[in-house]
Amino acid sequence: MQERLEFANRAFEGVREQPKHPLYTKILYNKNWLHYTLGQYDSLVHYDAVMQKNAAVSAAPKEMGMQHYLLGYYFVLVKHQSDSAFKRYNRSKIYYQQAKDSSGTGTALLNMGGIQYQKRDYFGSKETLTEALKYIKKETDSVTYWSAMDRIAQSHRHLHNYEEALAFYANITKEAPKANLSVYKNNYATVYIDLKKYQKAIEILEPLVQDTLADSETTQARVLDNLTYARWSSGVFVKPQDFLKPLEVRKLQDDKRGIISSYLHLSEFYLKPQPELARAYLDSAKIQAKEINSSGGELEVLVFKMQLEPQNAALKERYIKLRDSLYESELKVKTQFAKYKYDDELKEQSILRLENEKNLRELELAQERFTKLWIIAALVVAILLILLIYYVQRYKARQLKIQHNIDRLSAIYDTEAAISRRLHDDFGSGLNTAMLLLQRQENIDAILDQLEKLYNQSRDFSRSLNDIDTGAGFKDALSLMLRSQVPQDTNLLLLGFHKIDWDLVRPVNKITLYKILRELMLNMRKHSAAKRVTLKFEMHSKHLKIMYSDNGKGASHEALQLKNGLRITEKRIEAIGGSISFETEEQSGFTSHIKIPF
């Protein structure tokens, strides 16, 4: 043990000037524990003061709880200063709570309740021990749990709540493990002794005589003394030796409270047959009571002395004075223990508040630094993001422009191809006919008719390509074109056509719409054999919507994809930011939805 202390001293020297070192409190606690174990109490008290002054409380709450618990133990067993011990146990509880150590909290409360019990503050003891049960887990810390239950039951006993005490002990003796069970059963029997149900007490105590052979001598002495007293009180003959045997054991164990109990039982035993011997035992009990400052023990001595000397007024006066003093003392103790709890809580709250304020200041400084770094980082990221968006948008615009030019070229090429096919199909066949007439030397009228026909075709073809009025006459031109394309046996229905404000539509969009609708009408006339064609016009906030539908043959999706005119139509409308879609099935008609921006 001395070697361990030397090692602890060297470790402490390494952190002496570093109170915030993470191991400072732990090393100092281990050093204090070794001082206590070796009986070096002056060093214990000195380094306890060092620890309280320098330890970073919030950094090691568990070690601080252990340190206060150790000092509480010291004040109980070495200094016999229960008030100081209570304060230390209370501080230990507070630190254990901060460390979320349920077992430590419960054990500290258990010792506090024990001190209150010894000071005859039975109600306060019961409250403290009941609080202890909230922290003590019966499954993992059964010894502490059942010890607390036993002390609560004893508090009920002294408060004369005998039914509650018996209910507690019935539960304890049924469920508590074998360890300390003899102690609990002995205490159980004392309740029946108080109730003068001596036979019940004897039934509990007699089996314990054998059961306690393996227990401590202190427990054996308690069982033997209580059993002898219960037998004698019930009228069973007992020998003086039955009382003297446990007394000798208690003297050897220096069990002062037990010695007082034996003396009182012996004085009561000899009260009538040998009053002088009873008085001698009462005097011995009084001496022991004064040694441990037990006013309750002295009060019990006076009760028996007044029976020996009923005419002694001084004894009665002393009894009344001591009883009143004891009552006042009990009230003072109750208030004192409550004050200790309150003051310690305030003190620890003050310490924690100062620690929290300090930590808060440090945190605020750290947050300020972090905020500045974050702002700088955010600015850098924002600049990079803006540059990225700029280059991406620029790249997209370039790509869109390139794609737009490609689409325009593609539309031009498709239009040129369509013109080429139409020239070949219409004018080529007409010119071929004129050439055959010349070769055959037909009459001049037939040749002139053919040439006039070719002229009219070329004029109509030219007008269809370029001659579209986009001004005030657009509405009539569009209506005329639509009606001119409808076969004689087909009905054309224009819905909403006259409600459209064509001045809102840009000229290029009008031309595009004109050509799209002409392409749809041409496609209908050549392929669909429709009997009814419907065009529905609708004005919206930013675009014009047209729905074309007919009840013709329709076409498959594969056939639709092959129609060159429709592909040109799609490219034209996409070039101006519009859209077009087709819906058709064979023998189910044809529908198209067109959207033209203003």
Name some characteristics of this structure.
5 strands, 22 helices, Serine Threonine Protein Phosphatase 5, Tetratricopeptide repeat, five-stranded mixed β-sheet, mainly alpha, rod-shaped, 598 residues
Describe it.
- This protein is mostly helical.
- It folds into six domains: 100 residues, no CATH class; 58 residues, no CATH class; 76 residues, Serine Threonine Protein Phosphatase 5, Tetratricopeptide repeat (Alpha Horseshoe); 70 residues, no CATH class; 113 residues; 128 residues, Histidine kinase-like ATPase, C-terminal domain (Heat Shock Protein 90, 2-Layer Sandwich), CATH 3.30.565.10.
- The protein is 74% helix and 6% strand.
- The protein has 22 helices and five strands.
- The protein has a five-stranded mixed sheet, with helices on one face.
- Helix 13 runs antiparallel to helix 14 and helix 14 packs parallel to helix 16.
- The longest helix has 127 residues.
- The radius of gyration is 56 Å and the shape is rod-shaped.
- The chain starts with a helix and ends with a strand.
- The relative contact order is 0.04.
- The model has no long low-confidence stretch (mean pLDDT 85).
Give the overall shape. Answer: rod-shaped
Write the element-wise H/E pattern from the N-terminal end onward: HHHHHHHHHHHHHHHHHHHEHEEHHEE
Question: What's the arrangement of strands in the largest beta sheet?
Answer: 1-2-3-5-4
- Percent helix range: over 70%
* SS class: mainly alpha
Helix count equals 22
**Would you identify the regions where 5 or more consecutive residues have pLDDT less than 50?**
none
What is CATH's topology name of the largest domain? Heat Shock Protein 90
Distance between the termini: 98 Å
Output the CATH homologous superfamily of the largest domain: Histidine kinase-like ATPase, C-terminal domain
